[in-house]
């Protein structure tokens, strides 16, 4: 089995990190992976609502939806249901944002996501809208000016408490602009497991932003980058591997249908090449809602 690909806002995916029974004699640890993508600085709820169940099975009601307050309450509820939880984002957390965030260089969004409790954000193409130096400021904080707007206009900016990941964004010295991966431990003692998180953006990013935003950077093949890191993560003790990638799919079936019916998109050829030791893929970019059990596609291959 290779991966489950998903792309929605406030998606809960469960990754079960199961140690090798021949080496360890204790029970598996279930880790809740709470995934979101393409937030785009939408701090305020839109002037829309969604249909939700009412007091009876036949009744539905319209309720407000969207915005960081609703997202925060959803994340808190999901965290409360599982002591071993992690909150991840598949990119475009910032950029192409409404004025409430954009006028302050998306500092409010980063601060809000600190409060939400995001752990990792894979960079998306819009993270590069204001250039790599400004992206690094989002991570590290500070008030250095990289654009026409004045940073820290409201208060000093401490930067993201969560980690930006950019495994396939190379720099001229052969390194990566931001860390390629991180390993997080869950549980304690003999019941502890480790999950490796690899984050990367679409290789098409240079064609989606202004050239100045990616000057001096290279965007490497997604599957090759992931596969090269898998042995390293395993050597460092990762019991499971989760990929956060700003690339996506579309399906012709409903969100709750995991059959991958009519699946298409630029993520497909990447998934086909992935090392089978990748356990979960949290995706984005296409703004489509789906859960795809990719094992069903793998099972049909010769």
Report on this structure.
The radius of gyration is 19 Å and the shape is globular. α1 (68-80) packs parallel to α3 (107-116). By secondary structure, the protein is of the alpha/beta class. The chain has helices at 68-80, 99-102, 107-116, 132-140, 222-235, 268-273, 295-299, and strands at 4-7, 11-17, 29-36, 49-53, 60-64, 85-89, 120-122, 163-165, 169-170, 181-186, 193-201, 218-219, 240-246, 280-283, 290-293. The strands form four sheets. A six-stranded mixed sheet has the order 10-11-13-14-1-15. Strands 2-3-6-7-8 form a five-stranded mixed sheet, covered by helices on one side.
In DSSP terms (H or I, runs of 4 or more residues), the helix count works out at: 7
Residues in helix, %: 10-25%
Q: What's the average pLDDT? A: 90
Q: What fraction strand? A: 15-25%
Biggest β-sheet: strands ordered side by side in the sheet: 10-11-13-14-1-15
Given the helix and strand composition, which structural class is it?
A: alpha/beta
Overall shape: globular
**Largest sheet composition:** 6 strands, mixed
Distance between the termini: 14 Å
- Output the radius of gyration: 19 Å
Q: State the total count of DSSP E strands.
A: 15
Instruction: Give the helices and strands as they follow along the chain.
Output: EEEEEHEHHEHEEEEEHEHEEH
Spans where pLDDT lies below 50 across 5 or more residues = 1-22
How would you sum up this structure in a few lines?
This protein is an alpha/beta fold and 302 residues long. Helices cover 20% and strands 25% of the residues.
Descriptive tags:
302 residues; alpha/beta; six-stranded mixed sheet; five-stranded mixed sheet; 15 strands; disordered N terminus
